[in-house]
Amino acid sequence: MTSRARMPKWLAAMLVLILVFLDLPLAVIVLFSFNSSKSLSNFTGFSLRWYQDAAGSPDVVSALLLSLGVAAAATAVAVLLGTALAFGFVYGPRRVTRPIEAVTISTLITPELATAVGLMAVFTTLRVPLSTLTLIIGHASFTLVYVTVLVGSRLRTLDPALEEAAADLGAARPRVVATIMWPQLRTAIAGSAALAFVLSFGDFVTSVFLTGTDIAPLPVRIYGMLRFGLTPEINAVGTAMVGLTVLLGVAGVWLQRSKTLSRSTN
To answer: What is the pLDDT of residues 94-130, one digit of tens each?
Structure first.
């Protein structure tokens, strides 16, 4: 049994520097969200007062609830439409689906600013007032592409022999999907749903352009609070957002990894 090769010291040092570069700003936010004073340069003691202030602010709580609701609704729409698109791209006639798939995937590299401005122009032209509904539509429009890519990649790894065998035994297409394909797809769908929720919950650009005159989502609310200066309360809200997104992101990665490991051991 061969032992694993040791990582070169220069590569380990580079890895540490990259991790520090990526995580140091988050660590500073988390640290000073627990500061007992308003200072953003000197840590004077541990306190939860800023989390209490944020939790007691009606504007922050309303913005948080709006963001959670929009993210949940956008995720549901993205999962339904994205999964349907994935099935169409994988099982549809390639002559028809290939150009549509190329256009759909290209939105991953399209600047979000351009997409958001375009959506706002469409809603304005159609005289649709900006509201929670427009937010949901906007968030679903870019998150469904991630669902399509993840579910589609999983669909392409399925063994067609299992579907053919089930069909030969008399199973109709809905039964094949429910009994053969769904057990193999559910972790990919759950992982893509977690990713879609995280992307929607933390989105700022689309939210700015599609938010109505009522309550703003949490990222837009935080930006509005920054106009009065950076405060530990903003750090507390940011830390809560980071914690939620990291938790969901880890859950999505774990779902994908657990399915991959189970396939490799079988």
So the answer is: 888 888 888 888 888 888 888 999 999 999 999 999 9
For 266, the enclosing helix (H) or strand (E) is none
pLDDT one-digit tens code per residue, 130-164: 989 999 999 999 999 999 999 998 888 887 777 77
- CA–CA gap between residue 113 and residue 133 (Å, rounded): 19
pLDDT digits (tens, 9 = 90+) for 161-212: 777 777 776 777 777 777 777 888 888 898 889 889 999 998 999 999 998 7
Enumerate domains of the chain plus CATH numbers: 48-265 (1.10.3720.10)
E strand or H helix that includes residue 1: none
Q: Residue 111: left (phi > 0), alpha (psi -120 to 50), or beta?
A: beta
**Residue 45 in contact with residue 35, Cβ under 8 Å?**
yes
Q: How far apart are CA 136 and CA 68, in angstroms?
A: 11
Four-point Cα dihedral 142, 131, 245, 112, nearest 10: 30
Give the DSSP per-residue string, 174-237.
Answer: HHHIIIIIHHHHHHHHHHHHHHHHHHHHT--HHHHHH--SSPPPHHHHHHHHHTT---HHHHHH
Alpha carbon separation from 191 to 20, 30, 243, 258 (Å, rounded):
27, 26, 17, 11
